[in-house]
Amino acid sequence: MSSPSHTEASRTARSLAAALIGDPFYRAVTVACGEDEAARLAMLEAYFALALDEGEQAGRVDLADDGGNGAAIWTTDTPAARRQAAYAQREAALRNLLGERGFAHFTAIVANMEHALAPHGLQDAWYLSIAGIYPDAQGRGLGASVLAPGLAAVDAAGTACFLETYNERSLPFYARMGFAVAGRYAEAVTGCDYWLMVRQPHAA
């Protein structure tokens, strides 16, 4: 894992925005854009730039390739104080970026997901918070390759990892990567269901 340059980070943020603009979570937090998809894409680029920075500070970021076509962003076993400081910094920036209503959606959805997560005993698990590949670059194996280094690190740490997805079509892909569905939940803000998927560590 190497830190992306400023140019790489900008291109990667644009790729993530293009990949995830239709996701119910990201549509809900960019509600201030209304039906202006160009504004939504620009807001999401800024959102993912913040997420990449947070991942670099207190988690893990793996880039899809040298062309900035996507990334996987993880919350890892970084010390809690460092994670909390990085999250607080991003949260302050998100409040300004998303506007009052969008930020309210963000905090409510995160709280809803954390409530659903609580019974699963994943407090020490790694979290695949964001993964996306630029639409025109999909179908070339980049999704699997961008997850591989993080999954290897998870296995080396001997811990579980998890993710949430609103995209039912992605379930078979994540199943091939070793994740299993642990629950399906209705989320009130988006009005959509999402799936919690968990992967137990694989022996080396």
* N-to-C SSE string, H for helix and E for strand: HHHEEHEHEHEE
Radius of gyration: 16 Å
Instruction: Please estimate the helix content.
Output: 40-55%
Largest sheet: 6 strands, mixed
Q: With helices defined by DSSP (H or I, 4 residues minimum), what is the helix count?
A: 6
Number of strands: 6
- In round numbers, the mean pLDDT is 94
- Overall geometry comes to globular
Q: List the strand order in the largest sheet.
A: 1-2-3-4-6-5
Counting helices, strands and paired strands, the structural category is alpha+beta
Describe this structure in words.
The protein has 204 residues and is α+β, with helices and mostly antiparallel strands. It is 50% helix and 20% strand. It is built from 6 helices and 6 strands, in the order αααββαβαβαββ. The protein has helices at residues 6-20, 24-29, 37-58, 80-117, 142-157, 171-176; strands at residues 59-63, 70-75, 126-133, 161-165, 180-187, 192-199. Strands 1-2-3-4-6-5 form a 6-stranded mixed sheet, sandwiched between helices. Helix 1 crosses helix 3 (37-58). It is globular, with a radius of gyration of 16 Å. The model has no long low-confidence stretch (mean pLDDT 94).
Essential attributes:
204 residues, alpha+beta, six-stranded mixed β-sheet, 6 helices, 6 strands, 20% strand
